Amino acid sequence: MWAYLFGVVLVLMTPTFYNYYISLNEYGFGAAQYELTFGWYGAVFSDSLLTTAFAWTFMLAVINLVITVPMGLIAAKQFKRRPQQAWLVALMLLPLFVPGDIFASALLVFFKTLNGGFAELAKLTGFTFMKGWFKLGVTTAVIGLVVYTLPYIFIVILITLGRYHSEQTEAARACGASAWRAFWDVEFPQVKAGVFASCAFVMILTFNEYTRTAILKGGFDTFTTVLVSQMLNTGMSEQSYAMGGIVSSIAIAVIGAVLIVTMLRSGQMERRRRGEEALAPA
């Protein structure tokens, strides 16, 4: 089963390996001659456009992670507590059914209208601090990313919560634990795999997202917008392929670590179960 899973991951990563192949060529993409070099990876950090775009994207990913994962966890816990609330699942999954360009365009119109309304309100009341609250920038980009990634996080954590029995929390509360201690000491250890997977998922989705970020980001560049702009205009530079290789390596390391840790933990739990069955009286 694990060999099959790793095989599927390798197949999905095939385009990434081709990116590595290009980034290690001294003469870049499409060259008739191939000469192995790691020099482009060192040159990445001298490209201010790429490094600045990477820094902006990383900041958006961290902010998105801090906001989205707790929201997804709370929503999943709410549904787990009252499974008859089918409307909650429909509400959380609704953004998945709206095409990204349509959703981003709608948010763009909404934010521009809202920003204009606050600007008029600031003019009428004299509260100038309200002017520019929803001007395109980090805030609007983060809102778009939260709406985009939250349904995925909700599903991942909800699946993990499926094997957790709420009676354990009730037992902890009956023993005198506060709501926070019951969550942290009893519930979180059993769902932390889903929470950590959600964190990795948020980072990967943020780095891969283009449409919503490009429309809502305002005047700064993100990693994907720089790459798409290069492809449509001048063509991707060798440093861009190298930066793509670095980002892909980080994603592969995170996904690989999750798979390996899960495999080891599953093996340990299976051996423990077999040992308990062997020691149990007939």
TrEMBL record:
Q: Which family does it belong to?
A: Belongs to the binding-protein-dependent transport system permease family.
Q: Which domain of life is it from?
A: Bacteria
UniProt topology in membrane:
Multi-pass membrane protein
- SUPFAM superfamilies (UniProt xref): MetI-like
Q: Which Pfam families would you find in this protein's record?
A: BPD_transp_1
This protein's GO CC annotations: plasma membrane
Does the UniProt entry include the keyword Membrane?
Answer: yes
User: Which ranges of the sequence are coiled-coil?
Assistant: none
Q: What is this protein called?
A: ABC transporter permease
Stretches that traverse the bilayer: 53-75, 87-111, 133-159, 191-208, 241-264
Residue ranges constituting the ABC transmembrane type-1 domain according to the UniProt record: 50-265
Subcellular location(s): the record lists: Cell inner membrane; Cell membrane
Enumerate the PROSITE patterns for this protein. ABC_TM1
Q: Per UniProt, which keywords does this protein have?
A: Cell inner membrane, Cell membrane, Membrane, Transmembrane, Transmembrane helix, Transport
Q: Which GO terms describe its biological process?
A: transmembrane transport
Keyword Membrane tagged: yes
